[in-house]
Design brief:
alpha/beta; 23 strands; 7-stranded mixed sheet
Length: 570
């Protein structure tokens, strides 16, 4: 629907389109009267808005796949079965769609090509969607273009001179909105992310990328792609493209009419490909051979594989079977690597059989320790389990109150970063004027082997710092060895394990290179004790509205605030 300021000609064109659509694109009704010009390729539903929504909302409302595709722990199917080993079977069962704006023309080959790409590559975990566009923009450039209106122009970058100017499909981090066919499970998650982000006002800034400059200059209601660019950047996702061999042909042509992006009508940017041979569909490029490009069109090394393990302790013999099923069931839905679990030597046979069935390596212990004594003891198990000869990264996470919503190791900082450990705090910092901070200062005072002068220095070091939760963090083997070394220091002998971790890091008692993420950011969200989170369709999300790989303390309902987005869920 046009805006109130639109010209009479634009309004008349809109009325003509609505009249034609409501007359010709109607669902067949039980009637003896023949329908005028019915759509011959299936059912049609026409949605007519009574107000101008903007292009962004039109895209978000265009197609919403079922919520059962989401990784919700409330989805009983997720708990009941492990993920299929045959990903292609899942792809064949998923619904498919393509979203087309009204100022493009598509090649008659588009349907064959899109379905072929879904069949071949739809299972890739880092694929966001498939685009008909002959993408011409290098999003990250040393000298970005200044002309906002012409950002669709095909000569705006060097992509067309690359090795993929014709023939092979490839993956590129930038979204292609001219004929976009999303991967349904990704699109459903993105739509929820976008609604959550628009509600909460969370940042979608992508400094250094040209579209971010456009987003700040244009009417943001008409640029949905910035949300997608941020989303894909954070999740390391790609769009699949393939350029026909002739350099002036494409699977879709943009009309480049005068309007939001163009100061004058320029006409179609490409000719449409009509010869299937120009797409070389017989030359099948395997999934592992697809080249990936970052926002600057530089090849991405996707060959590196991390050696990872998840380490946890489930020594309470009174844990119910449901607790094991929730932890292991949600984790195994996303992660098939090593799980190392310390269990009680009194664990029943049903639990042991379940853990064996899901390839969980168990270490038995006879427990009689207090809660705080065991919390210290578990770090020895962590250190011994995360050995340098076997693993690059280990994740330790509390057992009874954690659920998994994504692969916890599908996180870019583990590959590209130079850190030894990543930690995740509670919402409130080390301060005496809040209950959480005050409790920890009280616990610090119980370190009876530390002198008063030493504890005073510790208090200065931790003051106003984020309160790190010891119940879940990532570390290289060297990090676990360093933390175990802290616990063995004489002055730390009677300290709570969380006190040891916080004091040891903030008082610079190790040589670890570490990062503490703000609460609600990153793959672990400690969502209890006044922490901030979002909840949509049964899925826990961080402050940035992205799905949290691990929702820690999800079942602490008495100590949990309502979700931030509770008043604007869609």
């Amino acid at each position: 629907r046009p805006t109130a300021a639109a010209s009479k000609e634009t309004w008349q064109m809109h009325r003509n389109v609505v009249e034609w659509a409501t007359t010709n694109l109607q669902l067949p009704q039980p009637s003896s009267d023949p329908q005028p010009n019915p759509w011959p390729w299936g059912n049609v539903t026409v949605h007519i808005s009574n107000r101008s929504l903007g292009l962004r909302q039109a895209w978000l409302d265009a197609w919403v796949p079922p919520s059962t595709l989401l990784p919700s722990y409330t989805n009983t199917l997720l708990l009941a079965r492990p993920p299929s080993n045959n990903a292609s079977n899942l792809v064949q069962r998923e619904p498919r769609a393509i979203i087309l704006e009204d100022d493009i023309t598509v090649s008659p080959l588009w349907y064959t090509w899109v379905n072929t790409m879904h069949d071949r590559y739809g299972h890739l975990p880092d694929l966001a969607g498939i685009s008909l566009q002959r993408q011409g923009l290098v999003a990250r450039q040393s000298s970005p273009q200044k002309n906002v209106r012409h950002h669709h122009h095909p000569q705006s970058s060097s992509i067309h001179n690359s090795s993929h100017s014709g023939g092979e499909p490839f993956l590129y981090q930038l979204i292609g909105s001219i004929g976009f066919s999303p991967i349904p499970r990704v699109w459903r998650d993105f739509v929820d992310f976008a609604h959550c982000s628009l509600c909460s006002g969370s940042s979608i800034a992508t400094p250094g990328l040209q579209p971010w400059a456009w987003y700040q200059a244009l009417d943001q209601r008409h640029m949905w792609t910035q949300h997608m660019i941020y989303y894909m950047q954070q999740r390391s996702l790609y769009t699949l493209y393939q350029f026909p061999t002739p350099p002036r042909q494409a699977l879709a042509a943009h009309w480049r009419e005068k309007g939001e992006h163009f100061g004058q009508t320029l006409g179609a940017d490409f000719e449409l490909v009509t010869d299937l041979g120009q797409l070389n569909l017989d030359g099948h490029v395997t999934s592992s051979s697809l080249t990936r490009y970052d926002f600057g069109m530089s090849p991405v090394d996707s060959k590196k594989t991390l050696r990872t393990a998840i380490i946890t302790c489930a020594v309470n013999k009174d844990y119910t079977f449901d607790t094991y099923e929730t932890f292991v069931g949600t984790l195994r839905h996303f992660y098939d690597g090593p799980i190392l679990m310390m269990i009680s030597n009194q664990a029943d046979e049903q639990v042991r059989s379940f853990l064996h069935q899901h390839n969980v390596q168990t270490h038995e212990t006879q427990e009689g320790r207090t809660w705080e004594a065991f919390n210290r003891f578990r770090f020895e198990f962590y250190k011994d389990s995360c050995s340098e000869d076997r693993y690059d990264w280990c994740l330790t996470i509390d057992f009874r109150d954690s659920i998994f919503q994504a692969n916890p190791f599908d996180w870019p900082p583990l590959v590209s970063g130079d850190k030894d450990a990543f930690f995740f705090p509670h919402n409130r910092p080390w301060r005496r004027d809040n209950p959480e901070g005050g409790w920890h200062f009280m616990e610090l005072g119980k370190c009876r082997y530390a002198s008063l002068d030493m504890k005073a220095q510790w208090e200065v070091s931790v003051a106003d710092q984020p309160l790190i939760n010891a119940g879940g963090f990532y570390g290289r083997p060297t990090a676990f060895a360093a933390i175990q070394g802290l616990l063995l220091r004489p002055e730390m002998q009677l300290c709570n394990d969380q006190i040891v971790l916080n004091v040891g890091l903030y008082h610079n008692m190790t040589n670890l290179r570490y990062q503490v993420f703000p609460q609600g950011h990153g793959p672990i969200n400690n969502i209890a004790w006044t922490s901030v989170y979002n909840l949509l369709n049964g899925v826990y999300r961080g402050r940035d509205c992205l799905v949290t790989a691990i929702a820690h303390q999800y079942n602490e309902e008495r100590n949990r605030l309502p979700p931030s987005n509770q008043n604007c869920q869609t």
